[in-house]
Design goal:
This protein has 135 residues and is an all-alpha fold. It has one domain. It has two helices and no strands. Helix 1 packs antiparallel against helix 2. The chain is rod-shaped. It starts with a helix and ends with a helix.
Length: 135
Amino acid sequence: MRKIKQINLLQTKEKLNQRKTISHLESLNAEAEKCEKVSKELEEIAKEKNTEFNKASAYSFQANRQLLQKLMEQREILVNRQEFLHNEKMAVTSKISQSKAKNDLLERKKLQEKVKLASEKELKREEDYSKIGKP
């Protein structure tokens, strides 16, 4: 019975870890969506600036080129961040799978312990009955 309680505690601990990992995965997904949105917006701004064909002074042209350069640098940073988030999501997903497998293993062990405990009780009952039946 004590071993079953220990297994229940281990299962509870594993479920808590799994919930924490799932919430971390959700936050990674939210951050990835934000990065995707900002990246698209930066790309749209860059396309807008590239398509402007109005006559501009040399200073204005130079400022626009620098702005485009900065936008592309920021977009590159966001792409790198998205790649990192993707790798992180894969690692977290793997961790969730491992946690689920561990929880399943603990459930099997708990069932084995229950069967073992029930068979031990049955053997004890049989011994008690055989002692009572003998004079």
